[in-house]
Amino acid sequence: MKTLSLFLSAALLVGAPAYAAQKLYKDYPADVMPELSESGEYNVGVKTITANYPNPVMTMDGKQTERSLTLEVWYPAAEKTDLAVYSDETRNGNVFEIQADAYRDASMRPTEEGYPVVVISHGYTGYRTLMYYLGEHLASHGYVVAAIDHTDSTNKDVNFAENPYSGFPSTLLNRSRDQVLTLNAVTSHAFFSGNVDSEHAGLIGYSMGGYGAVNTVGGCYSFNDQAAATFTGGKDPAVIEHVKQALNTCAGGNASGDETLPAWKAAMALAPWGGQHQLFDTDALANINVPMLYVAGDNDDISGYQGVRWLFEHTGNKDTKLLTIKNARHNIAPHPAPKEAYGNEFDIGTYLEPAWEEQKLNAINEHFALALMNCHVKQMSDYCDFLTVSGSSDQAPVEGKVPPAWKGFDNRWALGLKMESKD
Question: Which GO terms of type biological process are on file (predicted)?
């Protein structure tokens, strides 16, 4: 894995300034981490921008309102400036700062062929730097990566302790729309437009971000009366019918999966929500033509592992795959917990996995995200081989012989994974 600075424990921070940014990762030898989790050749810049919807948007209750998103965008940098600091807060509202491995507002490294764009979408609730490790990692390999603060759906917007579902209707309605807007906003932005490839893009969504990602690449929603009432709180039949009409759209608010943006070349859905309630139209799932990689813990008790399997089994693209992380629950995507989350289960429960170290999970995500994007977005066929691993990674002896390790993993260091393909 990339060389990263040692995580500073609370004990080490005694006497340090309260505003000191944390470094969340340990230094591990590259041999114990997946090959494609190693940083690329580019220095990474990062910039915060705003993406505005060009017209007022409709809310779930039929009102029109202005909507904008805050984006954190990573990109290959031409220079080194001051290292960035990411500032966010836990579900309890505890503010924390993380030391980045990216240079704030550095000039962009020019390119003639253009850098493909990858959009990253967090869960409910979350924040735009929840998967900053993926943003920095992919940018170091020649991508422009835009991560979204989904308005109404962040830790800052939702008082999860007192009114945990206040932002959920907006999340159901806007998650896919936000992903489409973000791609268009970055490719047209003055700072990026001259150096991005607007025809080749990838999408990574976690939890509700995965719910949106499936829709964005053509998996139309199919809320029935009961689901519309359950997840929005509606009771009046007329209201429920309006909610269904608002929700049951495709590819970012369109009427059909045929209107999926052709720029989308690959999507990675990490613990995607919605399959456990079968909120997607099976015919639309069968017609998805974008390569999909589903990733899920086999003990996911939020999105439901069988729900993710349902999505995998009904997604029609021949390149669809399911990576199962054994003995994992739902928290397979966030960065390691900041020290401010260690005071209670309510906060740390959104980061911590019972049986896995977050840094190892992050490295696995980096490895397969880069393989997926390089294979299908950049069309670098050598990287497709990293996706053709199959069955268990455990190297359990067969007739007294130990099978070789998965491609990209050293012997003994791929324990606990399983890959399935459509064929």
Answer: lipid catabolic process
